[in-house]
Write a structure and sequence with these properties.
The protein has 215 residues and is of the alpha/beta class. It has a domain of 146 residues: Glycogen Phosphorylase B (Rossmann fold, 3-Layer(aba) Sandwich). The chain has eight helices and six strands. Strands 3-2-1-4-5-6 form a six-stranded parallel β-sheet, with helices on both faces. The longest helix is centred in the last third of the chain and has 19 residues.
């Protein structure tokens, strides 16, 4: 049982048929993550989140302030538990900071997602059809970011090469590219059709039933 989109798997045609791609297994997290409401205006939403382990990035957050602070966007940034908001300086009026946030809820509204490209967040972005800019920290994340590029639905920006101008350009290019939107729509449909948690449960129950019959 494989909890990613089949299209995200390189050389997926070579994967043995015994593996079932069910896509990400997502559910309601509001009971422990809380909720988030989109502002009443119709500004596009940008989510910046590097998960829970790779959030000690004050300079990246400052670059995001400078890159997006004067855009007519609503910017949501997860700064995690390691960074003191006071050290970031003045927060632009269109930016909201969080130490923890309901990522799935925000992604359902997001126009673009800046991420470290962990597999969980990457699949959540694809599930919601959101183009991504990957700023990876480790090898697996770099591979995920490069795969987004291969699929034509994202950008890979090494962290030491991230600039204010580059981040801004990448966000605006991805947000307005109809070809990116079309490719994301296809992957989103593929993921939804794969079935997620119910499909995974069916695979497990089928395997248990088969095992019981063999006994």
């Amino acid at each position: 049982m494989v909890a990613i989109a089949r299209s995200f798997q390189p050389n997926s045609e070579s994967v043995h048929p015994k593996y079932t791609f069910v896509g990400p297994c997502l559910g309601d997290r509001s009971s422990f993550q809380g909720t988030w409401e989109r502002p009443a205006d119709d500004r596009p939403v940008l989510l910046v989140s590097f998960g829970s382990a790779y959030t000690s990035e004050p300079e990246i957050y400052r670059k995001c302030f400078r890159a997006f602070g004067d855009l007519d966007w609503h910017v949501v940034i997860n700064i995690g538990k390691y960074v003191d908001p006071a050290e970031l300086g003045e927060v632009p009026s269109n930016v909201e900071l969080h130490r923890w946030l309901p990522q799935l809820e925000i992604l359902s509204h997001a126009k673009v997602f800046i991420t470290h490209c962990g597999m969980g967040g990457t699949m959540e972005g694809l599930y919601h059809g959101v183009p991504m800019i990957g700023l990876p920290m480790i090898g697996e994340q770099t591979m995920n970011a490069m795969r987004l590029v291969d699929l034509g639905v994202g950008r890979h920006v090494p962290r030491d090469e991230a600039t204010v101008e580059g981040l801004r350009a990448a966000v605006l290019e991805l947000a307005d590219d109809p070809d990116v939107a079309a490719r994301l729509a296809a992957i989103k449909a593929e993921i939804r059709e794969a079935g997620g948690t119910p499909a995974a449960a069916d695979v497990i129950e089928s395997a248990l039933e088969e095992s019981a019959q063999k006994k």
